Amino acid sequence: MSGKSPESSRVNDTSAGAPTKPVAVTSPLLVLGIDPEGGQTLNHFKKVLSAHQAVLEADSTRASVRWLKPNLAFFLRHGSAGIGLLEEFVAKFGHRYFILLDAKFSEIENSLRGSLTFAFETLGVHGVTINPFLGEGSIRLALETCARARGAQGRVHVLCRTSESSSGALASLQQNWRTLVSTVAEQARVVASGQASLENLGGVVVGAAHRDILLSSELHASGLSVLAPGLGAQGAAFSIVKECVTQGPREILFPMSRGIFAGGANAPTQSAALLTEALTHFGHLPPFATLP
Questions:
Q1: Which of 137, 141, 221, 238 reaches 20 to 30 Å from 232, CA-CA?
Q2: pLDDT tens per residue, range 192-206
Q3: Cα(222)–Cα(239) distance, rounded to whole angstroms?
């Protein structure tokens, strides 16, 4: 690959048809995870990805969903062809949806710069997930790069407390979630430097099953955006959505993939019906085009 195609360059255009800043809301938002488990062959992967896209192209979906979360690993499985499909996906949907690349980057500084350049410049996404293992410097670099590339549209969600974690000697990495929350919040404040438009730039990933954290005073006070995977097929109860309306973080995004697409096993009509059912738990959302 050698940079962006003319189509993908439109993702970066915030003046003509591109999505505007996601508003800080008091009601949680549904995120559609794009995790096409396309088996061993590229042709089957393409068919599964097309089934995902068929749901996204429905008018009812565009009016109700604002964020997409493609998982980089599923595309990497198919090498350069898979990355090409990811580029095409972002170019096609990046002007209608905000796109969060679920990559969980964790690298030393010069390597991380390469990963972030791939995400924000080559692909043109609006946000990324990262791993905090390499410390404050990597978190700061991701936030700074995202702020320069996407401004108010940008998000960096740092892994904090997920549904899959060690129960052995390394369990303390996620049990120490309060330190992670305060550290990410501090780094986000430094990078935002008082700019109100960047108030949602920094975020953490907290599994939807961790009700105690999602409704905690520490997370609420941090002002961080929260990505909370795990609803539906992964076991978290939809009741947490309603609780977060009044007690949760300022901005909370609930990704769903398996419960709607089933990795691509569901027909588009079946996925669309499941999406409609899921959205009943999120209350009324205005059409995407009306966002300020």
A1: 221
A2: 999 999 999 999 999
A3: 23
